[in-house]
Amino acid sequence: MMHSAPTATYRVQLREGVDFDNLARHVDYIAGLGMSHLYLSPIFTASTGSTHGYDVINPNQIDPTLGGRGAFERLVGAARQVGLGIILDIVPNHTAFTLENPWLLEVLRDGENSPYASHFDIDWNAGPLVLPILPEPFEQMLAAGRFSVKNGHFVFDGTRVPLADTAPYDMTDIDALRKVHEQQHWRLKHWEAERDVITHRRFFNVTGLIGMRVEDPEVFEDTHALTLDLVRAGLVDGLRVDHIDGLADPAAYLERLSQALPGTPIWVEKILVGEERLPANWNTVGTTGYEAARLLARALTHSRGIEELDQIWRDLVQEPDSFPQALTRAKKEILEFELAAELHQLVALAAAALQASPLAEPGPETLREAVMALLGAVPRYRTYIDSNGIEEADHAIVTRMSETAAMGLRSEVGVKAVASLMLSPDTAQARAFALRFQQVSGALLAKAQEDTAGFRWSRYLAANEVGAEPAEPTVDQREADQFLSGRTPWDMNLSSTHDTKRSEDARMRMVAISHQPEGFKALYLRACELREAAEVTPAWRWYIIQTCLAIWDPADAHLDERLRDHIRKAMREAKQASFWTRPNENAENKAIAFAHAAVALWRDALPIELKQLVSSADTLILAQLALKALLPGFPDIYRGSETVFLALTDPDNRRPVDWGTLAAGTLDSRIATAKMNLTRELLGLRKTEREFLERAASKVVLSPDNVLLRRSDGQRALIAGFSTDLPANIEPIWHTEIDRQVIFVGWDTEMSEA
């Protein structure tokens, strides 16, 4: 239990070679950086081969692949000896939809009679639980003799699905197998059928993750038993709740969790859009800090330079859409393809809720059109209509959604009728629709913006980030002041996570483009002269040259491989020329060849523009760290980013960290050493000046060529940032100069004298 906010957290991604005993060997180094807490990704037993741990199969067991409970307790003991607390990431929204999940196996065998049937978010009214796991259609596999019944299981290709107890034990006859299949609590389907026939709530569009009904007190107790035990045993000091917006009633969940663990700080993974704030009735100390990452990138973006870059991009790439237009198109496509199953479910729920409605008699196509239009009009991840009805703020949001959704439709009757279910959720059917709508809206925005439009609309990739807005790359003084005024010492300030599209330093490489737009233009045009460029569209060339800049390191032996893997992922996420379900390797290979040719050109003769952009980025990397560490709240450091960390989206940002090299301080560049030294200096300052930082007011001073953060308690003032010169009134704690820019942290001597 924490009595004061952390000084700094060090987020560790477990698995992929990092288990408890491995991590325990590095706690001295982590504590020596100035961290107060280890912040661990999920430790619960996950699917075989899991690389991240969010696909939990047993929430009440510590994963044996990490070392089990014994190794976890050894890690905690080692951490305590060096003064580190433990923050744990928990996953209440879903577990893995896999035959390894022991609770799910019981449900497959016993159906609705299983004591775990109500634990999972399954629509039993839609029929047996659909398992879309077949490599080919059922009847095709049946005719080919690929099914059998053996020892109480339905068997195919090495997969064993448990049968109800009344099923015969051994058979291969086709007609008998078909009959047995039809008698089960589940139905096997070809994996491509997931778009049409799934009967469980998914995590986003991931059919392999099934929603849990933690709003039910019994389910909450069963899924949180180990978590509660670890906290009560003094092994865990705080919790981070994954994907809070996926829950039926986040406020009620947080209240129940807080009551079970009084005094334990709880952070939530929540993306706040624009000037949105956390609901006042949420029992949490704050978010995990994506809004802080957004502020940092926007504050460090050159306001005039981004305008120049925009014009260059429009002239050279000729993108016809604004980002809102690109997002609207992406939302429609996601609903018609990736979230088609959720759309079908919502239409059915709306139809049931509108039976005998006095407002309209909408048919299935009218309802489909209305639901799509309303989902497309949601301006944030979700509203929070619950069993108590709808609050005034959400009522206003839904009203605006209804008005926006009706625009352009031939009739607004269907939209008004469907919106009424959320505006006046007076029946159980209306509340069921509103609940499901809210869970889907967040998945839609995440998939459409972060995972689709963000890969298509590539003007300035520094703004195409989790929790950011590509169309809003800069921040004005009013918005910055408003953001700072709402922060508390308990707010996390992150800049990199396992989910960010680019690591913090790769992002600053891209921010440098706004400071030198003509330099980037020259790099782009020179790359367009390459023979390989002719086979790649201008939009992808623009994306790829930014990406090459983001991770450019001539000493990286894996650079070409990393670019190859990222470009394949980016093109499949964009869902234009290539798709995860149907990859176009020819188009991908042409784009990859262009990327490889571009970096080969740079290796042959380093362009002066590239050298200048990297130098500008070095300034921004250190400035971002200084601002992040001293913003109201506390910094969350993603493992390895205490020094320069250039990475793209996962799995690139989950590559192993060489803690031995970091601890030895044998870093390979001036900027890497400078960032490590500044990290230690800032975290030391946070410890010695904890009380000052917790009470000090904050002000960011923004201008195109310098950004300064001022923390003052009326008696002393601490200033950090970068400028063309070290201000005469600053007594520096730390400073360095890069390319005629001074990055510094220091006390205001004029304030001290006053």
Structure description:
This protein has 754 residues and is an alpha/beta fold. It contains 28 helices and 23 strands. Strand 14, helix 9 and strand 15 form a beta-alpha-beta unit. Helix 10 packs across helix 24, helix 13 packs antiparallel against helix 17 and helix 17 packs across helix 22. The relative contact order is 0.09. The model has no long low-confidence stretch (mean pLDDT 95).
- Give the integer mean of the pLDDT values: 95
The largest pleated sheet is described as: 8 strands, parallel
Strand residue percentage: 5-15%
Rounded to an integer in angstroms, the radius of gyration calculated over CA atoms is 27 Å
Low-confidence stretches: none
So what's the overall shape?
Answer: globular
- Give the strand order of the largest sheet, numbering strands 1, 2, ... along the chain: 16-15-14-5-2-1-18-17
Quaternary state of this entry equals single chain
Please give the alpha-carbon distance between the first and last residues.
40 Å
Structural class: alpha/beta
Please tally the helical runs, counting DSSP H or I stretches of 4 or more residues.
28
* Number of separate strands: 23
- Helical content (DSSP H or I, runs of 4+): 40-55%
Question: Can you lay out the helices and strands and say which pair or pack?
Answer:
Elements: E1 9-12, H1 20-24, H2 27-33, E2 37-40, E3 44-46, E4 56-62, H3 68-81, E5 85-90, E6 94-96, H4 102-110, E7 129-134, H5 138-143, E8 148-150, E9 153-156, E10 159-162, H6 174-182, E11 186-190, H7 194-197, E12 202-203, E13 206-211, H8 217-232, E14 238-241, H9 250-260, E15 266-268, E16 286-287, H10 290-300, H11 303-317, H12 323-336, H13 340-353, H14 364-377, H15 392-406, H16 413-423, H17 428-456, H18 477-485, E17 492-493, H19 504-515, H20 517-528, H21 538-551, H22 559-574, H23 585-604, H24 608-630, E18 634-638, H25 659-664, H26 670-688, H27 690-695, E19 697-703, E20 706-712, E21 717-723, E22 730-738, E23 741-748, H28 749-753
Parallel strand pairs: 1-2, 1-18, 2-5, 5-14, 7-11, 14-15, 15-16, 17-18
Antiparallel strand pairs: 3-4, 6-13, 8-9, 9-10, 12-13, 19-20, 20-21, 21-23, 22-23
Helix pairs in contact: 10-24, 12-17, 13-14, 13-17, 14-15, 14-16, 15-16, 17-22, 19-20, 19-21, 19-24, 20-21, 20-24, 21-23, 22-23, 24-26
